[in-house]
Input
Amino acid sequence: MDQPRLSEKDQIEWERVLAPSGSGDVAGTLFRLRKHLKQNYALSMMAIGRFLEVGGGGVSRDYAAAKKCYEKALLREPRLIEALLGIARLTYYGRGVERDVGKAKALYEYLAESDEPVALYMLGIISWRDEKDIATAVAYFSRCVGAGHVTARLRLAELRIRSGSVISGGLQWVWALGSVLAVSVRNPYDERLRTS
Output
């Protein structure tokens, strides 16, 4: 499953439109996104959904509206990874919808078929915290690390510590924390740090 990609020209335009959101001007970015709806409808709706889900910068959280935006994006681009992750996240945490771990897990499993790191990470969390299946959690976190995700290393170390391997788990945790810090110092928004 490939996520729809933008042409180089469109990518430059999207970066120009979205750049102010890093400065905290989320409301201004939402205004510019709404202007771009006709050109890039699915990506605009997905981005608007994310802003409504997260809130801040002059935008109030509205989970129900965020879910509608994600659904509208998926009507145009059924394989849009960020929109699928958004719906799975809202469903797992019960934000704007009734919490349903089974439905969220099914969406994450669909995304994990292509080794989507955030989906693998969340499947590890679901296996560990909701299903109490440590072996499956370790398998998902290991696949996640294999896909380049650094935060999953912390979860693997934590599971090792909880299983009784305090020294080796502690050493693994320190090493993992160093990896997370090294990546986050360079770019705190690096995709390898995302957990949802």
User: Anything to note?
Assistant: The radius of gyration is 18 Å. Residues 115-196 form one domain. The chain is about 70% helix and 0% strand. The chain has two domains: 1-114, 115-196.
